Amino acid sequence: MDAYSSWLELVSIKNKSAHEVIQKLKSIFSKFGSPDTLVCDNVPFNSYSFGEFSKEWNFNVVCRSPNYPKSNGLAEKAVDIAKKLLKKSLEEGKDIFDALIQYRNSPLKYLDYSPAQLLMSRICRTKLPISADLLKPTLCKGVREKLQLRLANNEKYYNKTATDLKTLKPDQNVTVFNHIDKTWTPGKIIDIAQNPRSYKVLDENGAVVIRNRFDIRESLNSYKSVVNNDFDMLNSRNCSLQANSDINISKHESSSDLVQQSKRSSLEIESPLNNAQSSSNYESASNPPALKSKVSGRIIKKPKMLDL
User: Fold this and answer.
1) CATH number at residue 63
2) Are strands 198-202 and 37-40 parallel, antiparallel or unpaired?
3) How many CB atoms lie under 10 A from the CB of residue 6?
4) What does the longest C-alpha to C-alpha distance in the chain come to?
5) Where is the composition biased (Polar residues) (predicted)?
6) Stated pTM of the model
């Protein structure tokens, strides 16, 4: 949407890649010319290829603060108008371009001029019969004064409940609102970002993120990263595991020493018995038993049994 005339363009895209968006913008810029400043979201407009495209076509890119739609209210309003046009055209079974041209020819309530008159100094010709005199270009008078008055009124009513937030300094401890978990997490200010009223913040995971001042609060607690805590816990766990392994090794060594000592003592106990038995066997071998005989002198021989 054009910020001056509120001219709305609806373009169908296959995906939200930088290449696809650049091709569609080239088609629009070839009709109306390139703008001075493009206020947009971060993805994919903060990519390298889109930055090169902005340099080539000579316009500035201002990305809004992440997770803060109020910083780009005109674009959000354009999305709301486009959704309503699509819904009405589907309900009535009409073409979306019929609804779009009717919007471009409808006067704005705060200017009394239509987007077509503000952009092209004339209204667009439609299906309805119209006088040729009404299609002649005419200059729109007092537009800038009316725009400034409208902006002043908006600022006046907004500042009734709004307050100026304190400027933050680098290396200052803060808490950052997490829009996913809906919680406040610790962080540290790195520097002021290029986005309006935004800062580069080091979050608890060690990543540098850009957040609006509205999502940042001052904190008296010192910043400590969760990654460092996990690393310290891992180191302490490894140290405890190493200590337990050393204790187990020492216990194993002591138990093996005890086993070896018991084996040695058992061997020492068994060795004299073995020595006594071997000596008795030697003595019996060297001194064989005497043969028994009867009164008549006949030697008594033991019968040999059949050993099966």
Assistant:
1) 3.30.420.10
2) unpaired
3) 21
4) 174
5) 272-287
6) 0.66
